[in-house]
Amino acid sequence: MPVLSVENALLSRRGVLKVGACASAFLATAGLSASLSGCSASSSASGFAVLRSSDLAFLRALIPVMLAGSVPASSMPDAAKATLNTLDDNLNHLSPALLSLTQQLLDVLAMPVTRGPLTGVWGRWENASPEQIRHFLQRWQNSSLGLLKMGHGSLVQLVMMSWYECPQSWAACGYPGPPKI
Amino acid sequence: MPVTDPFREGLARGWKTHDGSQLEGDLTLEADVAIVGSGAGGGTTAEILSAAGYKVLLIEEGPLKTSSDFKLLENEAYASLYQEGVGRMSKDGAISILQGRAVGGTTLVNWTSSFRTPAPTLEHWAREHAVAGHSEEQMAPWFEQMEQRLGVAPWQVPPNANNEVIRNGCEKLGYSWHVIPRNVRGCWNLGYCGMGCPTNAKQSMLVTTIPATLENGGELLYLARAQRLLISGDQVTGLECQAMDSRCVAPNGHKITVKARHYVLAGGGINTPGLLMRSNAPDPHKRLGKRTFLHLVNFSAAQFPTAINPFYGAPQSIYSDHFQWKDGPKGPMGYKLEVPPLHPALASTLFAGFGQSSAEQMAKLPNTHMMLALMRDGFHPDSPGGSVELRSDDSPVLDYTLTPYGWEGLKRAFHSMAEIQFAAGASAVMPLHSDARYMTSLRETRDQIDSLSLELYRTRLASAHVMGGCSMGENSQMAVTDSLGRHHQLRNVSVHDGSLFPTSIGANPQLSVYGLTAKLATQLAERLKSS
């Protein structure tokens, strides 16, 4: 499988210590080339403080998969939209160093040349099935590359934290909300 | 009864403050003593020095938020009141690090637990780290002074159900437990200490030492990042600060130059070593930023047949030190058992799942109990802690090393927590690990814990207590400052914060910072008289 071959190539040719550096260079190069080639917009998308148009297709595919089960299907579009807006605001408060790491991660996920080999999703995110997305998250969580494990953790935390900061998520987890002072 | 906002009233009366985000040009400020950081160490130092008649300038990177700004909402609080917009983590991303960043520092958002530095810790520092003059007896009056100042007393109200689990479980098992002393006056028992106290009951620096400093004619500069100390020989001749935008994310281009006789660094672990590194401060023995400790925390979730409502009520009121010192300070890793409050966003990041399984866990939130273990790192040779380094943009980050010794402590803590949770009546327990699920008996849970691969990323790890990195001690080859916080190489620089600690504390550290810095500041006030 092409997906495995990328990771295996990284693993087989170099020692474990070098894998991190190699993958890091790979990801950084991907992010850099994305910025240079104009594949990823450098400015934010309309209506967002930080998120770029190139980030949106992935996040709009990812969020409903992560929220599944915590919101009825009929409310999913609103819930996903609220999550995306909260996520944008959270990114807008991250330190520049952490925002830059997050944007590199999103670049790697947006660009076909890295998305396919690293996620196994070869078509556009709009066309990815929930099953494909869950599979990609699982392979990152179980990857031997620390960077992909870190990427998995970041995606889960960013999305889930943003969703549970939205008041419309509270009823389903039995949280009555803060008391009135 | 309407809640007043004494800080805003003080501002209206004419307290002198400078908002970096509102500057329209560069600024120069002068003071007898410039204090970088307005948390436990900076606030305490500011009050004592200003009361002694010195002109004090308090410098805070974060925003000024007061009780009327605190809406008890996770999104607002985390993004505005925590370091790096609550994104701070270890360099490898495997450990979340919660540190405050606002006027009041971490005291604004901590959970109010107030313990004196344990005697075995002070003894260990004297014996192993050449710390002089800080024995239990010598420190007692300083702790007492700060306990009175900040209303520290054991919590009189019955614990919430989340904390009661520790008491009930330990009682059943014959393990020791105690009531936590808290720094509150007139607490409403709401449970939102981590989002800023809306009633000013928590005796944070925002409502105690900082107002006292401003009443005494001190000044406060906020939304200003201390970027670089200007060093000439063994003297600091100035401090360059960058004014920040109102989100506290990026510098807005204006500079503030600070001139003072003496500079006190109180930005806390990670930040204080970071400032000294950016300043190319002398570090002949390469001690700066080394031995940074975290009280690394792991978690155990439990389901109860009755409601726990872990989001309401004083967040921490019961603890157990049963496993803290049983093998001596240098034995296998000891740990303190406490609980965190569980609001939805925090809970979801701890469970760290998504989709159907996450939804099922979150749906049970009202019946969920969460316990945590604070690892007492830094006492054993195999617990070296982490090192602070600078990223390419000069911001500091912690590279923390977890050794097999540390993992062994985490594993025992998983066992202890599960045992106590079942003894208290839990119907199911789950260690927070990617491969774990709820198990309905202690035996199954123990088997699960023993079978888990304890490794980074799969094990949920966090820290709210960054300590060390500017270790104190009389031996300048081992320490950055002497026992009075005086920099070993720079004559007019002192460190007054948790970065002084040569190891972790073995208890929530705020009162350790208050007591120690009250002592250091009082002695600094004396020295400044004669210099």
UniProtKB/TrEMBL annotation, chain A:
PROSITE patterns: TAT (PS51318)
Name this polypeptide is given: Twin-arginine translocation pathway signal protein
Organism whose genome encodes this protein: Pseudomonas psychrophila
TrEMBL record, chain B:
Superkingdom of the source species: Bacteria
Domain Glucose-methanol-choline oxidoreductase C-terminal: 382-516
Family, as annotated: Belongs to the GMC oxidoreductase family.
Domain Glucose-methanol-choline oxidoreductase N-terminal positions: 78-297
Name assigned to this protein: Choline dehydrogenase
InterPro entries listed in its UniProt record: FAD/NAD-bd_sf (IPR036188), GMC_OxRdtase_N (IPR000172), GMC_OxRtase_C (IPR007867)
Organism expressing this protein natively: Pseudomonas psychrophila
UniProt keyword terms in alphabetical order: FAD, Flavoprotein, Oxidoreductase
